C-alpha cells in the first residue's frame, strides 16, 4: 500500500510539473527559458530620457494596484492608446516610444501599462525569468484596471512589441466594445477560436521574416483563425530580425522600423478618429 501510494504521489508531481512547463504556455512566455531566444535579445542600450508624463496608480479587480506611465491629452478626449512593453519591462525606451506616439497621434491619452508590477531588467536571462513568471490572471487584472481607469466611455486602441505584442492583442480582446484597434509587433497571437471570438477591433500585425519564433507558420495559423472567426486582420512582413523596431536594440533596423511605425501610426489615426 505504501509503495502504491508513493507511485501515485510521484505521478501527481509529474503531472503538476508538466502543467507548469514552458511547453504548456501559450503566449510569448513559452520562450522564456529558450536560450536561443534569450541570445536573440541583445541588452538594450541605455538611453537618457526625461519624459513629460507621470506614473499613475489605479486599483485592479484582484484587490491590488496597477501602474502605468501616463500622458494626458491637452483637450478633453475619450480616445486612449494602451502601450504594452517588451520583455524588458516598462523601461525608459518604452516610455520614450509612448511619448513619440503621444506626440504623433494628437488629442489621445496614452497609458504605458506596467505588466511586470515595477520589475525591469536589461539582462536577457532575468528578462526570461520575469516574463515566464507573470501570472495570466494578474496581467489581465492590470489591463482590466486600466480599462476602468480610462472609463466606460473611452475608445481604446492598443500597441505592443514582443511580449507586449501578444498582450496588445489580449488587451484589445479584454476591451470588448471599447476596442478601437490593435497593433502587435512580432508578438505571439492567441491560438484558439474561443479566445479570439470576443475581439471587436481590427488588428494590424507587424512581423519579421528572420524571426525564428513568431514565424510564418505561426502567423498563417493566426490568419486562418482570424478568417474563421470573422476578424479583420492585416499582416505586414519585414525582412528583418525579431525586435527590429526597438531603437535601443543593437539590431535596430532604422529603415524598416520607420516604415513599420508609419504604417502603425496611420492605422491608429484611422481607428482613433
Short account of what is shown:
The chain is 40% helix and 18% strand. The chain has 273 residues and is α/β, with parallel strands linked by helices. It has an 8-stranded mixed β-sheet, sandwiched between helices.
Kindly describe this structure.
The structure is a single chain. With 273 residues, the protein is α/β, with parallel strands linked by helices. Helices cover 40% and strands 18% of the residues. It contains 9 helices and 8 strands. It has an 8-stranded mixed β-sheet with strand order 1-2-4-3-5-6-7-8, with helices on both faces. It is globular, with a radius of gyration of 19 Å. It starts with a helix and ends with a helix. The model is unreliable at 1-24 (pLDDT under 50).
CATH superfamily: Alpha/Beta hydrolase fold, catalytic domain
Which architecture does the CATH hierarchy give at level 2? Answer: 3-Layer(aba) Sandwich
Give the CA-based shape: globular
Percentage of residues in strands: 15-25%
Annotated CATH topology: Rossmann fold
Domain count: 1
Helix coverage percent: 40-55%
Q: What is the CA-based Rg, rounded?
A: 19 Å
Terminal Cα span: 70 Å
Mean pLDDT: 90
Number of helices, counting only DSSP H or I runs of 4 residues or more: 9
SS-based class: alpha/beta
How would a textbook summarize the main sheet?
Answer: 8 strands, mixed
Low-confidence stretches: 1-24
**Largest sheet, order of strands side by side?**
1-2-4-3-5-6-7-8
- Beta strand count: 8
Reading the helices and strands in chain order gives: HHEEEHEHHEHEHEHEH
